[in-house]
Design a protein that fits this description.
- The complex is a heterodimer of chains A (51) and B (392).
- Helix content of chain A is 45%, strand content 0%.
- Chain A has 51 residues and is mainly alpha-helical.
- Chain A is globular and about 30 Å long.
- In chain B, helix 6 crosses helix 7.
- Chain B is built from 17 helices and eleven strands.
- Chain B is an alpha/beta fold and 392 residues long.
- The longest helix of chain B has 28 residues.
- In chain B, the strands form four sheets. In chain B, strands 7-8-9-10-11 form a five-stranded parallel sheet.
- In chain B, a hairpin with a 4-residue loop joins strand 3 and strand 4.
- The radius of gyration of chain B is 21 Å and the shape is globular.
- In chain B, 52% of the residues lie in helices and 11% in strands.
- The chains are: A mainly alpha (51), B alpha/beta (392).
- Chains A and B meet through helix 1 and helix 2 of A and helix 7, helix 8 and helix 9 of B.
């Protein structure tokens, strides 16, 4: 089941995994509140950054 | 002929070629990547950094040369996505019309274990800081928002240019993207994780670990393709020229034994499935295919077409009489010979290799540099192919 986004109270370093990755997924400006979909978008972006 | 009738006609030309059916004429596919940018009068950097410029270049490419299908609609180098995160790996030389990408090997041999354990975590923790100067502790979400915007712009361009080609010019898609692509894990290891030198070392040092890392990557990059093919309607997709594309580069540094261990096992299974489901497959193995003929000799006539990058088409036909051929218009000829010489060679290819189908003419390699083709040669060859029905 998808998790809705919760804003953190403390800053998380985006470069860490999975904490930073998941926090970034919550913070990016994309048109969905579905947390799993947001993570998939980041994974998809990762795929575009390979070359 | 309406635009839609023209599109269907072109699909029929390509499908007849693969099926070795006597065609109305031999089809002509564009295999140009960045060459159209300069041919349209733009600087290379202008085309690579503006989708509006790229769109105009591709439209002019089709208007000038009237291809039957286009392999690359300017989508090969979405560099702005990487540049949003500060990538400095691209060097664009507008004077020479060349883009060069620094060889990238963010991972060490020891990191293969981490890739096998969790490829996303490994890419996040190792590849991202290696490649992107903005990926540092304390970074904000802004560079990612910019990269995501660039990615959305890229996808919008892909949709827009495909629609324009279809609706304005009757140009069909080359392949059916809905079936996915052949993306074995070794291609990722070879191409962007370990680089040529590192990957070659890995294969000899610990082939089992390479395979473990590759198979972990394939859980998302390749294994789902099998289900996509199984779920797709049986038979060819008559809306595209070829049903599936297989591209391979890593085999160029492998022995045949290594190819069988790292690539062929799944490639074979996927090819068998595609053929069993009535799909046609276009195979592009970079470099020479000579060492690999044996793997494709038993497939039924009408199911495969191979891109011939460096091998002589007449030799490939002798060794793979069951497989249709793509290529023939070499960059050395298109960039150096006269229009008359180019047309004479094109006529020979059609007469001797395409009279009964089995041939799609295209540049033999990805046309990237201004010297890969003289515009007057491409104009002459395109006009000849469209009007010549000799032997057909």
């Amino acid at each position: 089941m998808s998790e809705n986004i919760e804003k953190p109270e403390t800053a998380v370093d985006y470069t860490t995994f999975p904490e930073g990755f998941e926090q970034l997924a919550r913070d990016i400006d994309v048109p969905t509140d579905d947390f799993e979909a947001r993570k998939r978008m980041l994974v998809g972006l990762l795929g575009s950054l390979k070359d | 002929m309406t635009v839609e009738e023209l599109r269907k006609y072109r699909i029929g030309l390509c499908r007849d070629a693969v099926a070795f059916k006597k065609p109305d004429r031999t089809p002509h596919m564009s295999f140009y990547i960045t060459w159209p940018i300069m041919d349209a009068g733009y600087k290379l950097s202008e085309g690579l950094r503006s989708w509006d410029v790229m769109e105009d270049a591709i439209v002019k490419h089709q208007q000038k040369y009237n291809f039957d299908t286009i392999q690359c609609l300017g989508t090969r180098n979405p560099i702005k996505i990487c540049e949003a995160l500060g990538s400095l790996r691209y060097n664009i030389n507008d004077d020479a019309g060349i883009i060069s990408v620094q060889d990238s090997a963010p991972f060490t041999h020891e990191d293969l274990k981490r890739i096998a354990d969790d490829p996303i975590k490994a890419q996040w923790e190792i590849m991202m800081p290696y490649k992107f100067p903005k990926f540092r502790p304390g970074m904000t979400a802004e560079p990612f928002n910019n990269a995501l915007k660039e990615q959305r712009d890229y996808f919008a361009y892909v949709g827009r240019i495909n629609q324009r080609m279809r609706n304005e010019f009757g140009v069909p898609s080359a392949v059916d993207g809905s079936l996915g692509f052949f993306s074995p894990g070794v291609e990722a290891l070879f191409g962007f994780m370990r680089g040529i030198k590192g990957f070659s070392y890995d294969m000899r040092k610990d082939p089992g670990l390479v395979k473990a890392a590759a198979e972990r990557l394939e859980e998302t990059s390749l294994d789902p393709v099998f289900d996509m093919v199984r779920r797709a309607p049986e038979g060819p997709n008559e809306d595209v020229c070829f049903d599936f594309m297989m591209l391979s580069l890593a085999h160029t540094v492998m022995s045949n034994k290594q190819f069988e261990f790292f690539v062929w096992e799944k490639m074979h299974k996927l090819l068998d499935l595609l053929v069993e489901r009535g799909k046609t497959v276009r195979i592009y193995m970079h470099g020479s295919m000579q060492r690999f003929y044996q793997y494709f000799q038993d497939y039924p006539k009408g199911s495969l077409i191979v891109m011939c990058e460096v091998d002589d088409l007449f030799e490939v036909r002798k060794n793979l009489p069951n497989v249709a051929l793509c290529g023939g218009l070499t960059a050395s000829m298109m960039g150096n010979a006269s229009p008359e010489e180019c047309v004479a060679k094109t006529k020979q290819l059609i007469d001797e290799l395409g009279a009964d189908g089995g041939l799609v003419l295209s540049l033999n390699t990805m046309g990237s540099f201004p010297n890969d083709t003289k515009p007057e040669n491409l104009r002459a060859v395109s006009e000849f192919i469209r009007t010549y029905d000799g032997g057909c």
